[in-house]
UniProtKB/TrEMBL annotation:
Top-level taxonomic group: Eukaryota
Classification of source organism: Eukaryota, Viridiplantae, Streptophyta, Embryophyta, Tracheophyta
Cytoplasm listed as a keyword: yes
Name of the protein this chain belongs to: Glutaredoxin-C9
InterPro entries assigned to the protein according to its UniProt record, in alphabetical order: GlrX-like_pln_2, Glutaredoxin, Thioredoxin-like_sf
SUPFAM superfamilies given in the database record: Thioredoxin-like
Originating organism: Sesamum alatum
Length: 137
């Protein structure tokens, strides 16, 4: 199974090269966030992050669309125990009330299902994913 390299490790440094990857994170399986403080770190470290509820059909569609483009997003399943903490942290990050799925591309909120599908249909999704280094071709 392939491992992803955290997004921050691909950002150019002052010397012009990327830092070596400190560790790997399995993003094929949904992960559960332990505390809300880690939300900012997760968004900053990964090129594409999907915050999703387990069993949500809209979240499933977003995951399928991104996988169909060849993107391997970090998927974090939000459950009942940590939903309030995660929503509070996402509210601080985006300045509004988040809805699931919440997709972050390049450290910034891209949007939910409607925004992703709209960008896909208009042809804006692939260039945005390339810019965030989520796509290589």
């Amino acid at each position: 199974m392939q491992k992803t390299i955290p997004y921050r490790d691909w950002l150019p440094t002052a010397g012009g090269s990327a830092a070596p990857p400190p560790g790997n994170r399995n993003s094929d399986e949904g992960e559960t966030i332990g505390d809300a403080q880690s939300v900012r770190k997760l968004v900053a470290e990964n090129a594409v992050v999907v915050f999703a509820r387990r069993g949500c059909c809209m979240c499933h569609v977003v995951k399928l669309l991104l996988h169909g483009h060849g993107v391997n997003p970090s998927i974090f399943d939000v459950d009942d125990q940590n939903e309030a903490d995660v929503k509070n942290e996402l509210t601080e990050i985006i300045g509004g009330v988040p809805q699931f799925p919440a997709v972050f591309v390049g450290g910034e909120l891209f949007g939910g299902l409607e925004d992703i599908m709209g960008a896909h249909i208009s042809g804006e999704l692939v260039p945005r994913l390339r810019e965030a280094r989520a796509l290589w071709l």
